[in-house]
Prior knowledge:
Layout: H1 3-28, E1 35-41, H2 47-55, E2 61-65, H3 68-81, E3 86-90, H4 93-99, E4 104-112, H5 130-137, E5 140-150, H6 153-165, E6 169-172, H7 183-187, E7 192-198
Parallel strand pairs: 1-2, 1-4, 2-3, 4-5
Antiparallel strand pairs: 5-7, 6-7
The site of S-adenosylmethionine has 20 residues, from strand 2 and helix 7.
Amino acid sequence: MENAARTAAYHALMAERTDDVSRRLAAIFPGDEPQRFVWELGCGHGHFLNAYAAAHSDKVCVGIDIVGERIKRALRKRDRAGLQNLHFIHAEARLFLGVLPRHVSIEQLFILFPDPWPKKRHHKHRIIQPSFLEAVAARCAPSARVHFRTDYQPYFEDARAVFVEHPRWEIADEPWPFEQETVFQARAESYYSLTARPVRA
Ligand SMILES: C[S@@+](CC[C@H](N)C(=O)[O-])C[C@H]1O[C@@H](n2cnc3c(N)ncnc32)[C@H](O)[C@@H]1O
């Protein structure tokens, strides 16, 4: 395929994905009254959010992952448990944030064992970046929290520094809100956790 054709195909695919995620979000959050939700980014097979949603039936929970097969498995678990307050969407995090309806805010964001991208030249792929935290802060409720956990200490230190240096975030000295082992947590020898909250403008 030639470059121009490849670019056109890419744009068509992105437009299709954007429409799909927008439609799913409109179905989860109808109307325009303010609503809050608990978001898990990179939910994998959905172990964490299934347990969290079962224990918090008053909260709307949405898990996303870029791998469609993982979302299918997460949805099967959700359906077996019959959880009405839990949704899983095949979506990339920045695309998801970009189409999140204006009346909807993030109450909690869980990022559990994100891809660590250990090589320096790949650090730009890490999800915890100043620009991403800026985009998240713009969609957070004032009392929101981000809960981040990794087993890769260099990523933990780096992520912590990104939060500390970011003008819209501060580290919150709070206990981890909910324990449920994920697939990657089960494989980890040890791990590091932080909670951050948005700073009022
Ligand atoms: C290392 S796995 C951890 C999965 C799960 N949280 C756990 O602890 O078992 C990271 C997950 O994040 C997903 N992911 C990576 N980048 C993403 C992005 N930008 N948007 C959504 N999901 C993403 C991957 O597909 C993968 O399922």
